[in-house]
Amino acid sequence: MPVLRRLLLLTPALTLAARHALAQGGTHDHAAATPAAASQGRAKAPRDAYVYIGWPQDGQVINGTRFKVWFGTRNFGVAPAGVATPNTGHHHLLVDTPMPPLDQPIPNDRNHLHFGLGQTETMLELPPGTHTLQLVMGDADHVPHDPPVTSRRITIQVRPGRAVPPPPPAPPQ
Ligand SMILES: [Cu+2]
User: Ligand 1 center to residue 12 CA distance, Å?
Assistant: First the structure.
């Protein structure tokens, strides 16, 4: 895998344990939790990796305060939080907030939504008005990659009213 080989060449400081994890395809969940791995800083991302908001689109006017948002990635995979597989991460949706510092865990509040189960879409509820949305991938420890994998920031207008189309009915309990 060329990306992995390049990673190994560019990071001579990798510990043997980390090399082992990479060689194994990074299936070792514990790799990023060890002090040695943490001292290496942010997880690497390929230069051509990117993430985008598939829906809604920039400038979209949305009728209804509850609507679906879906996320897409290219040249990058999605993995749950806590899983340190190379070239993967989990989505974070920034709502009405600028990009947080890139060298520390992404905050976890109503403006910084984590999708740590590996979700690629969500139902969002926002009050009527103008809002901004942007995605940033985070690694196993919720820290943006190096270089960061972020989407364009989009601006949407939310209008009061029922969501169109309405959300699907909840499954029977
Ligand atoms: Cu996270």
Answer: 28
